[in-house]
């Protein structure tokens, strides 16, 4: 494989065929992936309702009054498919607090990757049944995405990756487009028929 080819083998399979526009001088191991995201929350019960009752994540651990970061608070660890946790939440420095305001730096959004288009459709149906507002739905070429905000105002991207061979790449293997048109939600939901 030449230096420009990047079919990356990671635990669980290839991550993608994209050739970077600028490769790092000392690249990180190509198998590195995001293992989990840990977010501050205002209220463990409220965030649990959204991620467990609506989206369907399993509770791996939940505890109250746990010391951490120089204070005491509640924790919640959630998983899909038996992983130790994909999402962690705590109230150590955020209990009762408001959402992060615009105009400050920090996390833009968390992306949750569904293994199939039908899985993404199921997530959308769950949100619609709960009356949860969808913020945006976009075709990014490499994937289809639906954006929502969780109860703490954290933006969450629910997505499904297209197969590698359908990714829009130019002749050099670089990504050929990232922002696309709105997806047809009725067509997406038809995956469940």
Structure notes:
The chain is of the alpha+beta class and about 190 residues long. Helix content is about 15%, strand content about 30%. The chain has a four-stranded mixed beta sheet with strand order 3-6-5-4, with helices on one face. It has a four-stranded mixed beta sheet with strand order 7-10-9-8. It has a two-stranded antiparallel sheet with strand order 1-2. Strand 9 and strand 10 form a beta hairpin. The chain is globular.
Summarize the structure.
This protein has 193 residues and is an alpha+beta fold. The chain is 15% helix and 28% strand.
Task: Give the helix/strand layout.
Blueprint: E1 9-10, E2 13-14, E3 37-40, H1 44-54, E4 58-68, E5 71-79, E6 87-90, E7 110-114, H2 117-129, E8 136-139, E9 143-149, E10 155-161, H3 185-189
Parallel strand pairs: 3-6, 7-10
Antiparallel strand pairs: 1-2, 4-5, 5-6, 8-9, 9-10
